[in-house]
């Protein structure tokens, strides 16, 4: 009985001691933190409140680090302490919605509110012919460019092969593209090939500030920063074009804004340009409009419809980056989500493939019956947006058109619906109609806005309707290497073409050039091409070295989606084509009996072109 009482008293004492220690945990860690950050690092443990150290091991005295000279101390200061690394990690985690290379923690936050237009910055060469967020970020931007070069071996290979010849010597290129580490590799390749370049951004959210600083540090006049206003955007374009003692003779554009500005504001400069290279659906559409109106006074190369751009950048790039952009901004889980993708071109195909693979229930809207049929045969429902808008969890536009998602449809969306755009232009979603007094805008993350209706409904708008993947995330470097190599070759072709080869019109990239770009990237996969024998080449009517497809050949064929050769659906489509051709031929024969041969030629040519 006595032993039981003693044990009971012992347990009570131990419990009391545990409670006291528990109560002092917060105070203990608080004091420890103060000690760690105190300027007097030699403070003895005994000087601290004893209550904070109940049952805590004695701390060792921390000694100050002695430096031999000031230079050693500055070198040491470049590297963060453990506490610094932890805060850096938290900073990067909190800004995960920014592009990987935005590196908010490397940016001097005191300058964030100051417009770069109001800053006086000079690079180490003494030049001030640039306007970036912070020229001091150049060193970090250089590291990112070096990382990008490792996965852009084909473009670097092209640089090494042609560097001695300087095929762009005398070229003065003004560019308007996304300013990323991958674009920087392209710009530096153009400079290495002899060109002078001035550059600005085609999107107000896609610029990587440290990369822009790195380019400015090397002497490339860059006018861009992330988060520009509309006024800043056009000011930057004007600064690129309108500079004393320098006049552009080549244009590399993404979206057509630069081309439009030069055409409208500087018509004399536009007439003297030797060529335009355009890589987006929107920009190409603008060029064809100018050509149709007879106002295109220079030859232009349509890179967007080249096979290497359509099949790789548009398809494979978007297949990966759509998920990255949505995950970074919304942390969404795709399994079971209802998603509608507006447009089933190459961008739409890439988006749908990725979303479907993660378990999303995907449906398509389309205006083109051919693309709609492809969507059906790939297993997607083709619907009208107005029919399904109330049930959708995510709405993605990728058409290149305007007002694809209207205010009426936005009003009918359910609470929490995510709306974003994968097309180049910000016209696909009617964002302007959302800036009305009855709606409230709430910024919840970088590039993420909640649009709140009077009844409390929230619609999540990403990047204010601008290009999602480059505004909110990054894109695969290897794919951009393919597009950048294509752009470089197009510039070389237009600049060096003899007079008369290209007229004042829009041209597709020659098939031989497409094949060359592809061949440069095959070594990355240790791929080995099969070579035609002389007999095989003669049988097919081909040159052994290519091109292996005629210029009118499209690598995207309707029958390619068939699951087995010779299926009934495939036969039905081919048979329908034949009937249509016969019907057209007979109609022409009846209407124009004296022009039978011409009619036959036209029909056959038309079928080949299709």
From TrEMBL:
GO MF, any single term: adenosylhomocysteinase activity
Amino acid composition bias (Low complexity), ranges on this chain: 89-108
Gene3D superfamilies: Adenosylhomocysteinase-like, NAD(P)-binding Rossmann-like Domain
Cofactor note: Binds 1 NAD(+) per subunit.
Cofactor: NAD(+)
Record-linked PANTHER family: ADENOSYLHOMOCYSTEINASE, S-ADENOSYLHOMOCYSTEINE HYDROLASE-LIKE PROTEIN 1
Family, similarity comment: Belongs to the adenosylhomocysteinase family.
Entry protein name: Adenosylhomocysteinase
Organism of provenance: Gouania willdenowi (Blunt-snouted clingfish)
């Amino acid at each position: 009985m006595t032993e039981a009482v003693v044990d009971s008293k012992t347990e009570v004492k131990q419990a009391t001691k545990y409670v006291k220690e528990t109560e002092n945990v917060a105070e203990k860690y608080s004091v420890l933190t103060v000690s760690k950050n105190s300027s007097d690092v030699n403070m003895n443990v005994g000087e601290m409140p004893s209550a904070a150290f109940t049952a805590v091991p004695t701390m060792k005295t921390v000694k100050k680090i002695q430096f031999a000279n000031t230079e050693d101390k500055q070198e040491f200061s470049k590297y963060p302490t453990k506490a610094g690394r932890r805060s850096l990690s938290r900073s990067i985690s909190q800004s995960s919605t920014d592009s990987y290379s935005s590196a908010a923690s490397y940016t001097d936050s005191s300058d964030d509110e100051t417009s770069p237009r109001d800053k006086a910055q000079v690079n180490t060469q003494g030049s001030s012919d640039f306007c970036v967020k912070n020229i001091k970020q150049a060193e970090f931007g250089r590291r990112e460019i070096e990382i990008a070069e490792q996965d852009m071996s084909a473009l670097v290979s092209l640089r090494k092969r042609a560097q001695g010849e300087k095929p762009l010597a005398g070229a003065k290129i003004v560019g308007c593209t996304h300013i990323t580490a991958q674009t920087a590799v392209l710009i530096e390749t153009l400079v290495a090939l002899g060109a002078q370049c001035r550059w600005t951004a085609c999107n107000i959210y896609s610029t990587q500030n440290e990369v822009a600083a790195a380019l400015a540090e090397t002497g490339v006049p860059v006018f861009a920063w992330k988060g520009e206003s509309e006024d800043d955007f056009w000011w930057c374009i004007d600064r690129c074009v309108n500079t004393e003692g320098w006049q552009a003779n080549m244009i590399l554009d993404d979206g057509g804004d630069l081309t439009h500005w030069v055409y409208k504001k500087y018509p004399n400069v536009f007439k003297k340009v030797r060529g335009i290279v355009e890589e987006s659906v929107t920009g190409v559409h603008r060029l064809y409009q100018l050509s149709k109106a007879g106002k295109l006074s220079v030859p232009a190369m349509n890179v967007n419809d080249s096979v290497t751009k359509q099949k790789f950048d548009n398809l494979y790039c978007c297949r990966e980056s759509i998920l990255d952009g949505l995950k970074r901004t919304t942390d969404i889980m795709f399994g079971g989500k209802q998603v509608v993708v507006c447009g089933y071109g190459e961008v739409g195909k890439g988006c749908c493939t990725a979303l479907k693979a993660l378990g999303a229930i995907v449906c398509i809207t389309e205006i083109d019956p051919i693309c709609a049929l492809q969507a059906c045969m790939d297993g997607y429902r083709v619907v009208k947006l107005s029919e399904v808008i109330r049930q959708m969890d995510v709405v993605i536009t990728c058409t290149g058109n305007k007002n694809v998602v209207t205010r009426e449809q936005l009003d009918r969306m359910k609470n929490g619906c995510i709306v974003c755009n994968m097309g180049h232009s910000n016209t696909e979603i009617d964002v302007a109609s959302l800036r009305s007094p009855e709606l409230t805008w709430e910024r919840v993350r970088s590039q993420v806005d909640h649009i709140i209706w009077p009844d409390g409904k929230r619609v999540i708008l990403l990047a204010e309707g601008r290009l999602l993947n480059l505004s909110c995330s990054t894109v695969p470097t290897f794919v951009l290497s393919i597009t950048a190599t294509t752009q470089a070759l197009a510039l070389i072709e237009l600049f060096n073409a003899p007079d008369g080869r290209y007229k004042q019109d829009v041209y597709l990239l020659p098939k031989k050039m497409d094949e060359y770009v592809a061949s440069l990237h095959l070594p990355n996969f240790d791929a080995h091409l099969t070579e035609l024998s002389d007999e095989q080449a003669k049988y097919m009517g081909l040159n052994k070295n290519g091109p292996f497809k005629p210029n009118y050949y499209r690598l995207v064929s309707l029958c390619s989606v068939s699951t087995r050769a010779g299926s009934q659906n495939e036969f039905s489509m081919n048979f329908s084509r034949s009937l249509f051709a016969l019907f057209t031929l007979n109609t022409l024969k009846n209407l124009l009996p004296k022009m039978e041969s011409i009619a036959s030629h036209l029909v056959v040519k038309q079928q080949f072109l299709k």
